[in-house]
Amino acid sequence: MSKKIGWIGLGRMGEAMVTKLLKAGHAVQVWNRTASKAAHLAEYGATIEANKIDLASCDVVFTMVSTTDDLKEVLFGPGGLVTGAKKPQVVVDSSSISQEGSAEIRAQLEGLGVAYLCAPVSGNAKVAKAGKLLVVASGPKPLYEMAEPYLQAMSRKTMWVGEGELARIWKIAHNTMFGVIIQNLCEITVLAEKAGIPRNVFLESINDSVLGSMYTRYKTPVLCNLNWDQVTFTPKLLLKDMDLGMGAAKAHGVPMPAAAATRESIARMVGHGLDNVDFAILLDETAKDSGLQIKPLNLQIGDGLSS
Q: Are 155 and 134 in contact (CB under 8 A)?
């Protein structure tokens, strides 16, 4: 537990995750492309670095960025983490990237003598702040066991699913299901409301049924109050993940008709320019397609994340 820890990437997820790590008492060196987003972490004990390469002296560096290209850039691009003479022992990546891209990164890192662990998560920034993330990792088992205490500090549970890039397949499958569920949840919610069931009553009934989940519960407040500006995940990022899912399905010869239809629905939202909003705006789009005008209910509704 005396490892020197670094962190790259302070988007919604990264900021929430590294804050949990800091609050658990771990000293962390932090770098983010927009330095101002990292400044407030100093009050929790973080050391803010001006350059990515300054983290190369760390034993373990965690990364949480948006795309495969972003990860390659922070690792191997100009001034990247592993471009100098000094290199970290381990990179642990929690980004949502393709299996193929991850394998390329693993080969390149291992060629430089840097070990690599995939550690994607289930949950959004609100889930991370509540300490309820699930971390699913793949790579060498001893490497996972070394990183596990740090992963546990950021989550409610950690799992190892095997060697190589298997955690990437898990994450792709997870986020594909994530998209299909929100698509169907919006469809049935519009159906119920158009038939006369109040939206909050219907969602409460789903949450308390055998179909309810942490996901349906924490999306209920935004689906009731239509506050799309409280962004947890954008349509553009969901489309990226649906495309990863469809690509994996093609590679493995698995038909996924429900996912394919959902992918087109999400692409339609992106085509409408709905980018800097929460992906749950799909409810409004579905309602419009149904000739239903929905309005915010302005209700105080719990998201199920508070203890």
A: yes
Q: Are 29 and 55 contacting, i.e. CB atoms less than 8 angstroms apart?
A: yes
CB distance 33 to 64 below 8 Å: no
Rg of the chain in Å (alpha carbons)? 20
Beta bridge partners of 29: 6, 47
- Measured in degrees and rounded to the nearest 5, phi and psi for residue 70 equal -60, -40
DSSP 96: -
Q: Count the neighbouring beta carbons within 10 Å of the beta carbon of residue 130.
A: 19
- The 3-state DSSP composition of the chain as helix, strand, coil percent (nearest 5) reads 55, 10, 35
Q: How far is CA 124 from the centre of its chain?
A: 6
What single DSSP character describes residue 49?
P
**Three-class secondary structure assignment of 213-274:** CHHHHHHHHHHHHCCCCCCCCCHHHHHHHHHHHHHHHHHHCCCCHHHHHHHHHHHHHHHCCC
Are 31 and 6 in contact by the 8 Å Cβ rule? The answer is yes
pLDDT single digits (tens) 85-136: 999 999 999 999 999 999 999 999 999 999 999 999 999 999 999 999 999 9
- The residue type found at 293 is Q
pTM > 0.85: yes or no: yes
Query: What tokens appear for 163 in the block?
Result: 């060697």
Give alpha helix (H) positions in 77-140: 99-111, 125-129
What's the farthest any 2 CA atoms get from each other in the chain?
A: 66
